[in-house]
Every structure is written in C-alpha cells, then in structure tokens.
Amino acid sequence: MNTIHPQYITDKDGKKTAVVLPMDEFERLLEELEELEDIKLFDEAKKSTEPSIPFDEYLKQRQSK
Question: How many domains is the chain partitioned into structurally?
Fold first, then answer.
C-alpha cells in the first residue's frame, strides 16, 4: 500500500475524532477497497458448490431477457 498523509481533527481534549486525506489518496484507498471486495467475492464464488457458467454465456442470457 502506498503512503498516506492523514491530517487529524481533534476534540478539546486532543482525542482524534476525524481524518482528512488529500483527494488522490482517498480515491486510491477507495479503489483498493473495491479491489479487495472483488477478491473476497471471487474467493466466495470459488468455494460455492453451485454450478457455474462462462461469463460470455451469462451475458448472452442476460441480453436475451
């Protein structure tokens, strides 16, 4: 993971309550989270005992509906 440069917002006691990130770093984090979600879904699909079909066939079936 690339380095991030957070800035913290604190309350009157100095306790961190929020984080501010540069937009490019925030967007990069969102992309990485989406990629992790895709990996998680792929791993779940591999474990599934349900029959699978090729993606091309799925798209054809979906278009014909």
Answer: 1
